[in-house]
Amino acid sequence: MNDLIVQNFDRFLARPHMIWATLAYVILLVGLSLRKKNRLLHGRLMGFAIFLDLALVLLLQIERNAIDTAVNLRLTPLQMCHVLSSTIATVLYFPTLYFGFKCLRQIGSPTADRPMLRKKHLRFAVPAFIFRTIGFLFMFSLLPKD
Ligand code: HEM
Fold first, then answer.
1. Does residue 32 line the site of ligand 1, with CB under 6 A?
2. Structural domain range at position 37
3. How large is the average pLDDT for residues 119-131?
4. DSSP secondary-structure letter at 38?
């Protein structure tokens, strides 16, 4: 059992993209945990984590044409789940960012319709986070077997 964990961890460490994605996910978790205590820091951390995620998508696209691999169905069902969930999360990131920045701009403004903006932000942010979490978990199905 111990050997299995050590072997899998070694394989994980050999995959810089997975370390990158894990770092982004940890920053998302920290940012999410701060949403009530510090809205400004929440926004900054979420924005940074989303930037890391989008940069990784771009890098993978350039390096090995990830979309082509997915479309050609050379993936197992679990790996497909990773690709699909991560793609949905990536699409949802854009409206999340849009309304997130709007929320940030209205901090301290007496005229802003805060509950309405917050509602719109959450409508995209919550599913984005759920799909990102599913994509993150299924990412480990992409670890090479040997
Ligand atoms: C997947 C990404 C994100 C998730 C899951 C998320 C989640 C949330 C949640 C749950 C709240 C409500 C906090 C409460 O209970 O009062 C919130 C509020 C907020 N978020 Fe995000 N967020 C994300 C991304 C962002 C981004 C990228 C920004 C800014 C660029 C941002 C800015 C804000 C601000 C300013 C608020 C406070 C709104 C208010 O109470 O007036 N968020 N977010």
1. yes
2. 2-142
3. 98
4. -
- Residues 102 and 112: their CA atoms lie apart, in Å, by 10
Q: What is the best residue among 121, 129, 130 to mutate for testing ligand 1's pocket, by most ligand atoms within 8 Å of CB? A: 121
Q: Measured in whole angstroms, how far is the alpha carbon of residue 10 from the centre of its chain?
A: 23
Q: Is 47 in the pocket of ligand 1 (CB under 6 A)?
A: yes
Instruction: Record the tokens describing residue 85, joined without a space.
Output: 């969930």
Q: pLDDT at residue 117 above 70?
A: yes
Kindly report, residue by residue over 14-35, the tens digit of the pLDDT.
688 999 999 999 999 999 999 9
Alpha-carbon distance of 34 to 40, in angstroms, equals 9
- Predicted confidence at residue 146, as pLDDT, reads 63
For the Cβ of 135 lying below 6 angstroms from any atom of ligand 1, the answer is no
Predicted local confidence at residue 67, as pLDDT: 65
Closest by CA to 137, choosing from 53, 21, 49, is: 21
Cα–Cα distance measured from residue 69 to residue 73, given in angstroms and rounded to the nearest whole number: 7
User: What is the residue with the minimal CA distance to atom 16 of ligand 1?
Assistant: 36
Number of domains in the chain: 1
Instruction: Find out whether the beta carbon of 125 lies less than 6 Å from any atom of ligand 1.
Output: yes
In eight-state DSSP terms, residue 15 is: -
